[in-house]
């Protein structure tokens, strides 16, 4: 790239924790950041920038095409998922797109098991009972309003065999769980390391999702899958909203097809007050967290360090974590 000062625009600083040290790239640059950016303001704010950083602000095809004519060369996504960027439009316009990877290998699996342990041992229900005075009323040193199940000896079905899925498997084995990696839905013959998708659905005590959202995986688990779940499993989703059909999930809960769910990602984020997924929080076997599985202090710093490093690599002419 040429040696002139680069204009870098970060369109949604608020998506990175305030305690993260936002180190800047070493390349000579002008830095502009916005706490958040509405879609209608995107083009105005990025016009003239050579490099744009986004986490969750969508960059549509026409926006990318127009910005490219004004000098846009690179889009750096401050996340692993890059569905907010029209990648094909970027490719057609000659704009590089990069994401960040392998920064959440500890934080997402830990959050997965935080949800799983809380649900498996009915922590939420018992905490609610203590708050409401039910324990005091019982007259016993303990009481048994909710089921408590051990992880040891149970089967966890993992959908997504990447680094995070592998880390989840390692923790599960340490708890004495049997681990199954699901084959891709509708695909057979992937080899002995995979368990058929239908078997994972039917026979797992826990099903946890760690795969990207795409047209192939959208609504991957819906009512047909819930009806096939023989062991009434817990459903954990720390991957992407939309992998599970939320209306069918709530219906499955009502019909006792599942034991409960712990979700960190929803279809609509942030969820509205009247979102049915939020209304379900009065149940002791439901946990929803606000898309924070990835957001340990350590992971966010690692993510941001990678963002700055990748911009420097791009400016120097090297390629790293390129999507296009």
In order across it, which strands form the biggest sheet? 7-6-8-9-10-11
Provide the CATH architecture of the largest domain: 3-Layer(aba) Sandwich
At the fourth level of CATH, the homologous superfamily of the largest domain is NAD(P)-binding Rossmann-like Domain
Report the oligomer: single chain
Largest sheet, in brief, is:
6 strands, parallel
Cα distance spanning the termini: 17 Å
CATH topological fold name of the largest domain:
Rossmann fold
Radius of gyration: 22 Å
Helix residue percentage: 25-40%
Number of domains: 2
Mean pLDDT: 96
Total DSSP helices: 12
Protein structure class: alpha/beta
* Beta-strand residue fraction: 5-15%
What does this structure look like?
By secondary structure, this protein is an alpha/beta fold. It has 2 domains: 6-103 and 297-316, 3-Layer(aba) Sandwich (Rossmann fold); 107-288, NAD(P)-binding Rossmann-like Domain (Rossmann fold, 3-Layer(aba) Sandwich). Helix content is 33%, strand content 14%. The protein has 12 helices and 11 strands. It has helices spanning 42-46, 61-69, 87-93, 107-120, 123-131, 134-138, 163-174, 197-203, 223-227, 246-254, 276-279, 297-316, and strands at 6-10, 29-33, 51-54, 74-77, 96-98, 155-159, 178-181, 206-209, 234-237, 260-263, 286-288. The strands form 2 sheets. It has a 6-stranded parallel β-sheet with strand order 7-6-8-9-10-11, sandwiched between helices. A 5-stranded parallel β-sheet has the order 2-1-3-4-5, sandwiched between helices. Helix 2 (61-69) packs parallel to helix 3 (87-93) and helix 4 (107-120) crosses helix 7 (163-174). The two termini are 17 Å apart. The model has no long low-confidence stretch (mean pLDDT 96).
């Amino acid at each position: 790239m040429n040696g002139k000062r680069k204009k870098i625009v970060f369109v949604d600083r608020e998506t990175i924790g305030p305690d993260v040290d936002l180190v800047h790239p070493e390349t000579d640059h002008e830095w502009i950041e916005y706490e958040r950016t509405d879609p209608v303001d995107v083009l105005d704010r990025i016009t003239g920038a050579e490099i744009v950083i986004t986490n969750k602000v969508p960059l549509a095809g026409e926006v990318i095409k127009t910005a490219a004519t004004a000098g846009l060369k690179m889009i750096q996504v401050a996340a692993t998922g890059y569905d907010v960027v029209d990648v094909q439009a970027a490719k057609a316009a000659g704009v590089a797109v990069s994401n960040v990877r392998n920064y959440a290998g500890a934080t997402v699996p830990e959050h997965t098991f935080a949800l799983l342990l809380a649900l498996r041992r009915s922590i939420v229900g018992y905490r609610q009972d203590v708050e409401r005075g039910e324990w005091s009323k019982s007259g016993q040193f303990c009481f048994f309003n909710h089921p408590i199940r051990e992880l040891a000896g149970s089967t966890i079905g993992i959908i997504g065999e990447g680094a995070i899925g592998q880390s989840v498997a390692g923790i599960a084995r340490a708890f004495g769980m049997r681990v199954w990696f699901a084959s891709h839905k509708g695909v057979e013959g992937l080899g002995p390391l995979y368990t058929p998708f239908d078997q994972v659905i039917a026979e797992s005590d826990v099903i946890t999702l760690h795969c990207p959202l795409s047209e192939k995986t959208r609504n991957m688990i819906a009512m047909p899958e819930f009806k096939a779940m023989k062991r009434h499993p817990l459903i954990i989703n720390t991957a992407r909203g939309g992998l599970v059909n939320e209306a069918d999930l709530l219906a499955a809960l009502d019909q006792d097809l599942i034991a409960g769910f712990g979700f960190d990602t929803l279809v609509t984020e942030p969820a509205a007050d009247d979102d049915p997924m939020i209304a379900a929080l009065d149940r002791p076997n439901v946990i929803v967290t606000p898309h924070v599985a990835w957001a340990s202090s350590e992971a966010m710093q690692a993510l941001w360090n990678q963002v700055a490093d990748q911009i420097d690599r791009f400016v120097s002419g090297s390629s790293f974590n390129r999507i296009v």
